[in-house]
Write a structure and sequence with these properties.
Number of domains: 4
Largest sheet: 6 strands, mixed
CATH class of the largest domain: Alpha Beta
Radius of gyration: 23 Å
Shape: globular
């Protein structure tokens, strides 16, 4: 992973002291709420329903064991002993005292971390595939370019005050685990004729009030033009994006208004002016950053899948975990492990300080001291020897991190909702828990097969409900909490937005509604047919008829 240079460290340390001074002035009454707002947002600090919330940056979802232990200490010393893994691969703490935030940022800086640009109308944390660098279907490792973009975008003087927040996702594998189609910019990296990296650009994707799938505007961009082409896109957005209405300020609205073709013409014209500028990526700088992502010193191992057969037969729970939570690694004898944070009864994505320290220990014992966060809100151990999987499973089970539900219905993506967020129309966490409790049966979940269920507490769509195979949105209905259900969303390469089934439901009705939807699927599917494929074949009407069969 990337290591700070002396310049990087000084940059972060100075920013901490700047914010300390700004916070002291605010607490002394020398800055108004409005004056302090943008200062705190640029440092990841929100004012939520019950307390401030600090969003800590985890660039492209990668942590060292040392950094994760530091997060555990911060959660214990400054919070209530737990943190929350977000859908942008960041970590949030929900109960810090404002006066303590500068000290938290100083502690983060000691382990090369910060909270810069995790909020505000700027380029947010750049995300990527949680299996980057180790996936067996990877074409090109996207992490060096994520780091290039992170350094380029941090406090970029031209793009620090955009019309609205801006999100970039990067993918370098055959599968799209980064949801690139629903980001402001989605980038796919692939090898060219001579193995050189080429970049394909999607622009104008996003969720929220007006969800959209990104439009492809360029294919095959050479790597040295990455930053100049990004600058051209951002300049067009900065120049023409609406600032008079925040609900119409995202780039997806601009792309729709201009049409993808018209937007591409503007970008190409701007790019002609800047593509040979000083932002052209020097090979020496790219080589410097790539050197931080050289492969670990892997041992020469044989594939040991067959040796696990006896353990799988002896322990069905271990077998289920291997089937769902363990993915193939590009190196023989190694595996990628997802540690689920979604046991029934725990808010999805919440992890305790004890669990963080355990995961940090396991990353060193069973790997190279590296941990990932997925946008599905789980931890990843990317380099586990197959021979250690049974031991890791036992330890993870003791810590409540071995739920064998990755890719299944109960691996719910869920925003904090009305329990924490001041923007939410309804609570998300109790709905997730009710669904998990109703369907907490592995045999049933396994029979259902791959199924994404996403929950958002408001139209901001932090739970990505639009791209859940089943999506649930909290809405306000005459002052009461209700929930709208959509079907057919998908975040992968064949991305799609869900369609609303119909009128909303009370919280108590939601588990019954989900059961009716699943019943239609089970009765209608072909042998081996997954939920999404079945939905696309039969359409929404059979589900709608079943859900509202007893209404009125």
């Amino acid at each position: 992973m990337y290591q700070y240079s002396n310049f990087d460290q000084r940059f972060i340390d100075e920013r901490v002291e700047q914010f300390r001074s700004q916070t002291e002035r605010y607490l002394a009454g020398e800055l108004t709420d409005d004056q302090f707002q943008q200062l705190r947002l640029r440092n990841g600090l929100y004012i939520q329903r019950l307390a401030p919330m600090l969003r800590i940056a985890v660039p492209y979802g990668i942590l060292s064991a040392t950094q994760l232990r530091a997060l555990a200490r911060i959660c214990r010393d400054y919070d209530k002993g737990y943190g929350h893994l977000s859908t942008r691969q960041n970590v949030q703490i929900n109960w810090p005292e404002l006066i303590d935030v500068p000290d938290i940022l100083a502690d983060l800086a000691k382990v090369q971390m910060h909270a810069i640009q995790t909020s505000g109308s700027c380029i947010r944390n750049i995300t990527t595939d949680q299996f980057a660098g180790v996936a067996d279907d990877e074409l090109i490792d996207p992490r060096p370019w994520c780091e290039v973009m992170r350094q380029w975008s941090t406090f970029h003087p031209e793009f620090d005050w955009l019309p609205r927040k801006f999100k970039i996702a990067v993918n370098g594998a055959e599968s799209d685990r980064a949801a690139t189609h629903v980001h402001d910019i989605g980038i796919h990296i692939r090898p060219g004729p001579s193995g050189e990296p080429l970049f394909d650009f999607l622009v104008g994707g996003g969720l929220g009030r007006t969800p959209a799938i990104g439009a492809r505007i360029r294919d095959g961009l050479p790597e040295h033009h990455l930053l100049t082409y990004l600058e051209a896109i951002l300049r067009v957005y900065n120049r023409y994006g609406r600032r008079d209405n925040k609900y119409k300020a995202r780039i997806k609205i601009l792309v729709r208004a201009m049409t993808p073709e018209g937007f591409r013409e503007k970008v190409d014209a701007e790019w002609e002016r800047v593509k040979d500028s000083p932002s052209t990526l020097p090979q020496a700088e790219l080589d410097r950053i790539k050197a931080c992502f050289e492969p670990h010193p892997y041992a020469s191992l044989e594939d040991e899948t067959d040796l696990l057969a006896a353990a799988r037969l002896a322990n069905p729970a271990f077998n289920n975990w291997l089937s769902n939570n363990v993915a193939p690694h590009k190196r023989p004898g190694y595996a990628i492990v997802t540690l689920s944070t979604k046991p029934t009864g725990v808010p999805p994505g919440d992890v305790t300080d004890i669990q963080m320290e355990a995961v940090a220990d396991w990353s060193e014992r069973f790997g190279f001291g590296e941990v990932r966060i997925s946008h599905e809100q789980n931890f990843i151990l990317p380099d586990v020897r197959q021979r250690d999987l049974e031991t890791l499973f036992r330890l993870a089970d003791e810590q409540g991190l071995a739920q064998a539900n990755v890719g299944l219905l109960t691996n719910v993506i869920c925003c904090p909702g009305g329990d924490y967020c001041s923007l939410a129309n309804a609570k998300s966490i109790p709905v997730a828990e009710a669904i998990q409790s109703r369907f907490d049966d592995y045999d049933y979940l396994h029979d259902l097969g791959p199924l994404d269920l996403n929950i958002s507490g408001c139209m901001n769509a932090c739970g990505h409900h639009h791209v859940g195979h089943i999506g649930i949105l909290g809405v306000d209905k005459r002052g009461a909490e209700f929930y709208q259900v959509s079907l057919g969303g998908n975040q992968a390469l064949d991305a799609s937005l869900g369609k609303i089934v119909g009128p909303s439901f009370s919280r108590a009705e939601v588990p019954d509604v989900i059961e009716k939807i699943l019943d239609v699927y089970l009765k209608s599917r072909f042998e081996g047919e997954e939920f999404l494929h079945c939905y696309r074949r039969i359409g929404i009407e059979p589900f709608r008829e079943q859900v509202y069969a007893d209404a009125g």
